[in-house]
Amino acid sequence: MLNRIKKRFALSTKGAKNFCKGTLLTTALDLTLMLPAVFAFLFLDDYVRPLFDQAKRDVTEHIREGLEAIREIKSYSREDDYLRKPDLLTAKYEKIQTKGELLTGVLVNSANSFMKLGLACVVIVGAADGSAFPSPAPC
Description:
By secondary structure, the chain is mainly alpha-helical. It has helices at about 1-10, 15-70, 70-75, 80-130. α1 packs across α2 and α2 runs antiparallel to α4 (about 80-130).
């Protein structure tokens, strides 16, 4: 494998070993930083999804019950009472949706900021690393 890397990238044996070591360390660091974020997202998904599902289920069940019992509702003149409950359920559902959107926005924007910081670090380290090795003299 080292011979293939040496040929492909025109490296010495030491350069090929350093290339492999750097690649493995970078992969290990990426996994080390990524796994806690993945577990946090899985936990948040398990925590937030039931809130959305229950609120949506309440609204749809009330509408379904109303459609099934429309004759009784109209015969007893209970339209106002029936229409008051969907307003409350919808307001509750909108409140939960707003919290979910806020949480999503915060997570996405913080991840984007973290990625921008990582890009800046890569550029700075790459520029510093590139200046440490003088370029070959032109022929």
